[in-house]
Amino acid sequence: MNHDADPMNELHWLIDMVQTIEVGLVVLDRQFNIQLWNGFMENHSGISPNELKGNNLFQRFPELPADWLKQKMEQVFLLKNNVFISWEQRPYIFKFNNYRPITGRAEFMYQNITLLPLSSLTGTSHISMIIYDVTDIAINKLQLTAANEQLQQLTQRDELTQLFNRRHWQQLVEQEFARFSRYQEPTTLMMVDIDYLKQINDQHGHIAGDRAIQHLAHLVSRNLRNTDVACRYGANSFALLLHHCDTVQASQLAARLQFSLQQTPLLFNGSHLSFAISIGISTLNDECSGYDRWLDTADEALANAKMAGRDQINIVE
Questions:
Q1: What are the residue ranges in the chain where pLDDT is below 50?
Q2: In this structure, is the dihedral angle defined by the CA atoms of residues 9, 14, 17 and 18, taken in order, positive or negative?
Q3: I want to staple 217 with a disulfide (CB 3.0 to 4.6 A). Which of 62, 103, 161, 178 is the partner?
Q4: Source organism's superkingdom (predicted)?
Q5: Using an 8 Å Cβ cutoff, are 130 and 111 in contact?
């Protein structure tokens, strides 16, 4: 007699496999009562199958997203189709702690869930939940996404000031110009330039010059509204895109920026270094033929402020 083919042996092997596989397996009846709770689920929940047999899943685990999950399960019962739930839709169903050494920084286990109909001769009477631990995959993807976002930030930012760089800022100006043609909302460009930065470099060194640039960048950021966008435009100049801002409001901002600089001189090597700024302003109007012409007008206003003796505000409309 071949004992290896004994049905009881086969059943034993099947039960052993269900209990030891590295995925969670839960079987529920039509009323969502627990019929099977395998070793994976016991190990991670700390609750034995004997404690749960016949218990309603949602009564025993009230923290589960009951309405949402029941809706998914009803699809399985009625349509007899599998339903897949990705960790990207919902990081987990069962909040199990993460004990994996590689991804130890994750607080909980990220899970993919598959819901399967279990059919008998009388129809679909049970549903199976298969729970996969995908913490490694999830953490790797989240880290890659964060790294890509950080890289994008680096490509958009000026290293010295952490303001936007000129290339990215000009893309925003181009977009704003296109919006103006549709909505006609007042928008202004402001160019700001440090007067006589070369003298600071010559007298105190280039580190002092860099500190002056950073100091002005800080004051620019502090005086901007949330909707405004600033960049480092040149070696010692900045450009501001001011949304919903007309010439009068821009002039007030320019005066406020000059006043802030007067009130907070740069502290360098124990001494206060004072410097001034020239400002050019150009508000967008219907006569402007393109965003590049708008930039040229703002540059022209800045040049006029320089020629007028510096420490000036000039407006070109």
A1: 1, 103
A2: negative
A3: 161
A4: Bacteria
A5: no
